[in-house]
Structure formats: structure tokens, C-alpha cells
From TrEMBL:
<dbReference type="InterPro" id="IPR005079">
    <property type="entry name" value="Peptidase_C45_hydrolase"/>
</dbReference>
<dbReference type="InterPro" id="IPR047794">
    <property type="entry name" value="C45_proenzyme-like"/>
</dbReference>
<protein>
    <recommendedName>
        <fullName>Peptidase C45 hydrolase domain-containing protein</fullName>
    </recommendedName>
</protein>
<dbReference type="Pfam" id="PF03417">
    <property type="entry name" value="AAT"/>
</dbReference>
<feature type="domain" description="Peptidase C45 hydrolase">
    <location>
        <begin position="132"/>
        <end position="348"/>
    </location>
</feature>
<dbReference type="InterPro" id="IPR047801">
    <property type="entry name" value="Peptidase_C45"/>
</dbReference>
Amino acid sequence: MGSCSVDRLEVFEVGPCKDGYQMGLLIGQRFSETIRSRVASDLILQNQLRPFAHSPHSQSLLKPLFYNNQTKFPRYWDELLGTAAGSGVPFLDILLINLRKEILAFIQKEGAKSANSDTSDDCSDVLVVSESMAIAAHNEDANVALVGHTYIIKGILPDGLFFVGYTYAGELPSCAFGFNSHGLAFTLDSVPPAEDEIVAGGIGRNFISRDLLEATSMDDAMNRIKSSEISVGHSYNLFETSTRRIVNVETASRKRISVYEVGNTPFFHANMYLHLPINQVQDENSISRHKRAAVLTKESKGDFLSLLGDMDDKKYPIYMTGPLLHTLCTALIDLDKQTLSIIEGNPKKGDVSHVFSIAPQKSP
């Protein structure tokens, strides 16, 4: 498939819906082909998640995991039920791709980490809040199976407020980045806690980030993150247009959380914990990207985009083009212009495909 044939990212407006199931159903119907295609090409689902789910000893992990997520977030659970029904993909497959991080953490112990083990969401962010600019640039990196398997959901809620989320086919919006009409935005980076830092049956990251799309403020977003007993761990970059604030929040199981307020010094975050004290897996890829980012100029928006487009390190480039990992797109958030722009292709070239206003809106 030549890159010229890749369709522009589609924005699908959905809602207001009577319930979560209907919203999921409409999304599933609209993108059934994309969701089916993603499931058919997802080797991690086929080679690891499905066989595990069908093995007798999986129930002790999956039962509490499913129960706890459904109980805490029944509306988002119903959204996934609707997505499965609308797309014609088995509900179990939809659950497995949405909770894959929470499940893989436990099944990869059994087999040594294989070549198709999950490296499916590396990301890089560079953030700054100075007098002259308050911006963030984010590379959305994913497993090659996700190329062409993403879309943007604009969900309109019953009260007329809305969210916009960059969405992986079949997953809850958004495991990547998004914003809402309260002027709150986020980007996400996965982080790798060591095995002894992981708790089985906790809340899935996809459910927490779906919940963040409905946060009314920075404080509300923090409370939503804090109130969820997560299983694995995650790094959240939160943006509030009304206060011109950017914070990086690192989380781990057992309700551990660390908040770093971004200021004048440009802050680079890849896929490792920087300020939450925790045992973590040493990720060569992230370490290399950090070293490279440290030496690059970070004085302007153009510098940030050049940094995220950097391919100097052949083995672990910041901008990824395969064979295993691909940078799907770059998001640029400008709190002064109050915009979120999506750039497709190397961000150095600055080929903007979408621009959204992230200014807070009054309830209709």
C-alpha cells in the first residue's frame, strides 16, 4: 500500500446519544471495515491475547479485570459493547485490544518477550510554558498494524458539550490525545513499570483516558486519574487553555501519582518514568530518544517539530517509520492560539491536515 493511497484521517461526529451503547454502535457501524481490518492484522491479538483468553487459567485474571472496569465505568463498557455490535467484531476481541496492556503484563511473563511483544504505543512529547509560548508537540507512535487504522471521534454529550479524540480502531477514544469543549486537552505516553509494580485486575488505561475526555477542568482531570486504581501505569500530559497550564502526571498501581508543572525549561517525555520513584523496565528506545532530545535546540515551535521529526539515530529515531513502530501523526497544541493541529508525515515538513479550536466553550 503506497503512502499516497492512505486516506486522510476521518472525523466522525456522533451524538448526542441516548446512552453509551448507542454511541458505540454508531461508531462501530461507521468504521466497521477499519475495525475488522485492524483486528485481522493485529498479531498481538492473534498470537498472544486470544490464545490466552481461551486458555483455562486466564479466568482468574480476566474475570476481575472485566468486572472491575465494567463496574467503575458502565457507560464506557456499554460503548465497547455497542462498538462490537456495530462492527461485527466479537466483544471479547474488542475487550482484549482495549485492555491489552493490562493483560499482556501478566502473560508475557510466561513466554520470554517475543519479537511481537507489545511495543505498540511508544510516544514522544516536548512541552514548554514560557512568556513567549505555551506549546506541546506529541508524536503518536504505534505498532505498524495500526497504520491506516485510526480515526477521530467528535462525541457530542447529552448536555451539548463535546470531546474530540484521536482513536485507534475498535478502542475507546482516546488512548492517544484529545480535548473537550471545557478547553481541557491531553496527550498520553505509556511507561513500563517493572513486574513487581503491577497489580492484576485494576482499571484499564483506555477507560481512564476515555473518562478524561469528559473532565471539566485540570483539577477534575487529576481527580479522575487519582480515583482510578490502575493496573499498569501511565504518563499524562494535561493542558488547560483557560489557565495556560501544562502538567505531566505519572501514575502507577496502588494509587501512586507524581505531578510535574511544566515551565520555562522545555520538558521532553518519552516512555519512561522521570519523576515518580518506581522500578521500571529499562527501555533502550526511550533512553536513546531522551539523549538525542537533550542535545537538540528547543527554542521555538519549529524547533519542537524538528526535534519530533529527528531521524539521526538509525536504530531508535524519534520519528519512526518502521519496520515495527510507526509515527502515525504528530499533534501540536498551542495554548495561546488555543488550537490543536494534527500533522501527517514528518513534522519537520509541517503538513497540517486538521486544526481544531480548543478554546473553552459555554454550554449551549
